[in-house]
Amino acid sequence: MKKPYFISVGLLILSLVALLAFPACRPAPQSASETPPTGVVTTTSLLGSIVERVGKEKVEVTVITAPATCPGEDDVKPSQIEATARARLFFMHNWPGEAFVEGLLEAAKNPDLRVEIIELEGNWMTPPIQAQGVERVTAVLSDADPANKDFYQANAGALLEVIQSQGGELKARLPPFPPTLGGQGGGQVNVICMAHQAGFLKWAGFNVVATYPPPADLTPEKVKELVDKGREAAVALVVDNLQSGPEAGVQMAQEIGAVHVTLSNFPGGFEGTETWEKAIKKNVELLLEALGK
């Protein structure tokens, strides 16, 4: 009656020998490159574009706010709540328009989600602030996923070189402009702008005479004050912010006798500007076109 027992043991031994003799038959351990990408959610395309460039195939990015709108103007979508529920990292700026984040995180119910605030002083479209953003995001990705730290840092290094190169090339095309052959003109250009564009225009070499709030807070009295200042300072441009209202300054520009132009504060705001370098180049080209340069 014990014979079946010995037969089964013998078969077991033969099976083990076969597995050892042919290791290719055993399932290979999952390599680091085959691990699922890290789920990352960002409140804006400013953060999302950096995460995508630094993380590449190691990350799966969901951006909450559409690039052409201000944070908080769009309703959070169910798919974005689901992405947040699965994500490991959540990046935000801590801007007033991000008040929706509290409700989003509550709805996602993700106790393992790591929330990171990347709070920088200045306009993110300017090269110095963009570079700071890259460094801060890279540090978080490297800490959260140390196995791929070298990968993230190498990508960040390449991106920082792009930022420095692009910034230098564009700055050379901007004011203060050299004088004309007759010795007239040149120097800085006076502008009035929506407040969210002031930092970018100052970096670009323009003299910001005055700023104005979003259209909802732009009263007739404020408009008159701005028009008077614009005329007195011979303002050449009135600059709107795409995400706040692309035509808020049209009337002011007409009354001042200035050219109206709209810039974007986010990658992807204009078609074909999904990266920072494309977005800043578009802004500079719009400014130069408005000045006839």
Q: What this model shows, in words?
A:
- It contains 10 helices and 8 strands.
- The chain is of the alpha/beta class and 293 residues long.
- The chain has a 4-stranded parallel β-sheet with strand order 2-1-3-4, sandwiched between helices.
- β5, α7 and β6 (207-212) form a beta-alpha-beta unit.
- The protein is globular and about 60 Å long.
- The model is unreliable at 1-32 (pLDDT under 50).
* Strand fraction: 5-15%
What is the share of helical residues? Answer: 40-55%
Largest sheet: 4 strands, parallel
Specify the CATH architecture of the largest domain: 3-Layer(aba) Sandwich
Reading off the top of the CATH hierarchy, the class of the largest domain is best stated as Alpha Beta
Discrete helix count: 10
Shape: globular
Number of strands: 8
Give the radius of gyration: 27 Å
Query: What class do helices, strands and sheet pairing give?
Result: alpha/beta
Q: Uncertain segments of ≥5 residues (pLDDT<50)?
A: 1-32
Separation, N- and C-terminal Cα atoms: 100 Å
Walk me through the topology.
Blueprint: H1 3-21, E1 38-42, H2 45-55, E2 59-63, H3 78-86, E3 89-92, H4 100-108, E4 114-117, H5 127-144, H6 149-171, E5 190-194, H7 198-203, E6 207-212, H8 220-232, E7 237-241, H9 250-256, E8 259-263, H10 276-291
In brief, what are we looking at here?
The protein is of the alpha/beta class.
List keywords for this structure.
4-stranded parallel sheet, disordered N terminus, single chain, 293 residues, Rossmann fold, 8 strands, alpha/beta
